[in-house]
Amino acid sequence: MRNNISVLKKYIASQAISKCASCSLRELCLPVGLDAHETEILSDLIEHKCKIGRGEYLLRAGMRFKSLYAVRNGFFKSYILDSEGRQQVTGFYMTGELLGLDAISAEIHTCETVALEDSEVCEVPFERLEEISCSIPLLMHQFHKIMSREIVQDHRVMVLLGNMKAEERIAAFLLNLSDRFEKRGYSATSFVLRMTREEIGSYLGLKLETVSRSFSKLQDEGMITINNKHVELHDIHRLTRKISGY
Amino acid sequence: MRNNISVLKKYIASQAISKCASCSLRELCLPVGLDAHETEILSDLIEHKCKIGRGEYLLRAGMRFKSLYAVRNGFFKSYILDSEGRQQVTGFYMTGELLGLDAISAEIHTCETVALEDSEVCEVPFERLEEISCSIPLLMHQFHKIMSREIVQDHRVMVLLGNMKAEERIAAFLLNLSDRFEKRGYSATSFVLRMTREEIGSYLGLKLETVSRSFSKLQDEGMITINNKHVELHDIHRLTRKISGY
DNA sequence: CGCTCGGTTGACCCGTTTCAAGTAACGTGG
DNA sequence: CCACGTTACTTGAAACGGGTCAACCGAGCG
Q1: Cα–Cα–Cα angle for B173, B179, B185, nearest 5°?
Q2: Residue nearest to nucleotide D8 (CA to C1')
Q3: Does the pLDDT value for residue A133 go beyond 60?
């Protein structure tokens, strides 16, 4: 009896914490601006907490599109595979960010998406999201903002790839991560890179050796310390100046 | 009297042809899949036919976001201006394509958008578009597809900027234009470039001299003829092979 | 008609890639 | 828990592609 109650309690607790209403990411994710009732409706259609182990694929290119996925915790990369098997990383995704937006247009996923650490996602069935956003204008609007933000972010990468030198790209990359960590309540100046030099290079249009050299250069100049995957930003101002002009 | 009637007739005619229902771009633009009644509702909120002369700006970075714009005819470029005044072209837009999607997220336009030839656009007030798409699910869905398509297109540019060599970029660029012209009923193999070499270079992450050299090279290899702004594609297959692998 | 702007081409230079060697961290199985 | 093999990372030297600088040409426009 005792035991049963404790199991039940645990079950209720796990349900509770997985709801949007009590999710720490509310303010970064789809429910921004929704009231309690609306949040509940949204929450009900979402499959909360799918676990994805490190190295596991959440999405494969060619998969039929059914759902978007919100990162609940963890870290993902998305990439496009060319016919010779090379990767072009199209983005890194952290807590509160929405995966799979590229697939809406053709109803087929175009990116491979893999967890770079043990992660959890919330599955958002897209058809149902569209249905309920008819009756929750704020949700629809928030969704549009999220899609638009993805476009803005992609434009930033285009500027980076089109105009910046290697060191500038790395500086921009670190500052972008720093920003996003800070928004999520983590340190803006000290964090761990979840991806390899090769993955960074693929994202930034550089070879891994160039990434490594650029890190070393920024370290020599005293702006950062880099120790394997651990980064410390010592002089955000100077890093920013390095890319100012873009 | 005679005169008045003729003026009236002209007015009615101009109204009629400017409606979505009779627009030749229906199948490329927002009304895809809508029935007559729905098309009418959409059409009513759109300000049809704003003329933008060559060299005039449709949007400026920093402008408050109010509307999206569908290109009715003509040709536009969008670009981001860095603090030193350099341009990074983020896209070229032709008939039926939707401008201003980047501005939804921050409610501020981030791109400068200028007509490269005398053009006309339809203004789509965004708040009202969101309102009516609550009652026209197909319209909402079509809008989501258009945004998603923009993301996919940006990803393609990222691959191009991240991995391809100069000549490959030019080949990819020409094939992309060819495709889009063909979809609009124009020749896939013979068309006029509306933009300068410098603008092409900015879009493709190359200097104008490199663009020029790459055109010459492709011409020497017999794949294209290029005469000022006029291009002929002689061997689409070979051009495609040049970029296959991406 | 002449000026300006856009485009082409050549020569040289610089930054990134490529190739190569060596080292450090990590995960696995004994 | 250690030894091993594997993978990730760093650094150097040489090669190469695209950038830069410069001269010239041609088309379009006032």
Answers
A1: 140
A2: A196
A3: yes
Domain A164-243 part of CATH 1.10.10.10 = yes
**Per-residue model confidence as pLDDT tens for chain B (246 residues):** 555 665 555 555 455 456 899 999 999 999 999 999 999 999 999 988 899 999 999 999 999 999 999 999 999 999 998 877 788 999 999 999 999 999 999 999 999 999 999 999 999 999 999 999 999 999 999 999 999 999 999 999 999 999 999 999 999 999 999 999 999 999 999 999 999 999 999 999 999 999 999 999 999 999 999 999 999 999 999 999 999 877
CATH for A2-146 is 2.60.120.10
Q: What's the whole-number average pLDDT of chain A?
A: 92
Q: Is the pTM of this model over 0.85?
A: yes
The DSSP call for residue B236 is H
Chain A residues touching residue B163 (CB < 8 angstroms): 82, 86, 88, 205
Class (C level, CATH) for B2-150: mainly beta
User: How many residues does the structure list for chain B?
Assistant: 246
Is any atom of nucleic acid chain D found less than 7 Å from the CB of residue A189?
A: no
User: Cβ contacts (< 8 Å) between B210 and chain A: which residues?
Assistant: none
Q: Which nucleotide is nearest to A207 (CA to C1')?
A: C17
Whether A145 contacts chain B with CB within 8 A: yes
Chain A, residues 147-176, CB within 8 A of chain B, namely: 147-152, 154-155, 157-159, 161-163
- Domain extents in chain B: 2-150, 164-243
From the number of C-beta atoms within 10 Å of its C-beta (0-12, 13-18, 19+), residue B68 rates as buried
Query: For position A114, what pLDDT does the model report?
Result: 97
How far off is chain B from A29, nearest CA to CA, in Å?
13
Choose between A231 and A83: higher pLDDT.
A231
Q: Across the strands, what pairs with A189?
A: none
CA proximity to A226, closest of A182, A151, A176, A171: A171
